[in-house]
Fold this sequence. Notes:
D-Maltodextrin-Binding Protein, domain 2; 23 strands; 15 helices; 498 residues; globular
Amino acid sequence: MFLFLLFLPFVAFGREITTAWALNAGSINPHLYSPNQMYAQIMLYQPLIRFDGQKFVGEIAESWEISKDNKTYTFFIKENLLFSDGSPLDAYAIEANFKAILENKMRHSWLGITQKIISAKALDSKTFELKLKSPYIATLNELSLPRPFRFIAPSAMLNGSTKNGIKAPIGSGAWILKESRLGAYDIFVPNPYYHGNKLQISKLTIKILPDANSRILAFESGALDILVGKDSISRENFLRLSKNAKYQTIQSQPQGTFHIIINASKDRKTADIHLRKAILAAIDKQSILEKILLKIDKPANSLFNPSLEFCNTTMQNATFNPQKAKENLTQSTYNQESLQFVYVANNPIQKAIAEAIQNNLAKSGIKIELIASEPIGFFQKQKNGDFDLIFNETWGNPFDPHSFIASMLIPSHADFAAQKDLNSRQKIESTIHKILNQTDEKILKHDYQTLLNLLDESAIYLPLSHNVVLGIYNKTKIKSYQIGAMETEFLFETMEVK
Length: 498
């Protein structure tokens, strides 16, 4: 009887569900980046607050207060929270996590909040206080992200630190990583100490299938019950299978903005603004939306989704006009050199769009050399500015717009590399700093308008579409599935099964 009671919390009843992903979840360190997969960090670990698609709501925090000067955030922690090993999740555990995160502050420098925090401490077991040196508009946004402000059991840290690894992925989220086999599968089971609603799934197996065609074949054969996530299913297969009564297709609200960046660095041929304007005017975006994106993704005419606060601004330079393209090219110093357009080698959408743009630009007299790069090399090229044109994306809610513009200040993304030699760079930086330190909505609206106009005038961005996350599931196994507010938020814990 004692042994039964001891293991009773781990007894789970419900249906087993199988899905697939391109990569293993990794060690699932909540405070680090690739190869840790964001969906898994969200599944295992919880933040103080989360974004539900409309507003911020408490997750670990029951409630919170913000001081009148917007520099002190006090979080009141929910009662009786436990990590998956049964240890307490209280304000002291949160303090230990903040200490570990800030120990690796430089790694997280793309997040503006890491430069603002002057203290993060437990006032008692149920009260956590965060003090900033100045107001920061994106504080709640960045505390709700998939990483790094999610919490692991202090007992799972290495001498109070996580920057060099963890002992085990012990969180307070809905799931526990039970088993992982490299290149084969990850198995998750419910966390018996999870304080949310009881899960209907007893076991979630995520098979590792890097190839999109292999994933869809496995789904149609019945080996998989659901596919969800960015690039998990092609648009062609999504539309084809939507006609099959056995399956239910789903898609998210528009998320981040898929776009092209043209590098304005002085050592690139595209430093010439007339050439950049010629490129923007020569690209037939509507044809790309119809023939490659199949009208599933929403057309984008601005860097950020216009439904976001402060972001309803259209980019005037990003309009298809072949005559204008030729006029700008005539004014440029371009001399028939090949421009390098970098895309991810195993991404068929990027490849197809890059080829279409290569054809568009050839008609205007601009030569393009397509550079296929493996994912790690692709992001390194973004960071180093080793491109003339490259694909990029904003990150959607709750990153956009505040956290995304904050990242423009740090040499870790394509935006910094492309902008750093602009004549307007100093004004762009000062405007971003003004925005991030401001809380008055009227001033924010004005400053965002200024910033977005500066970026438009720089002629380095071509918005293509506002991404949607696609999914499909087998209706004989699954009753309903909800797509999360973030594109890497897979809410398997809310799934209803048959």
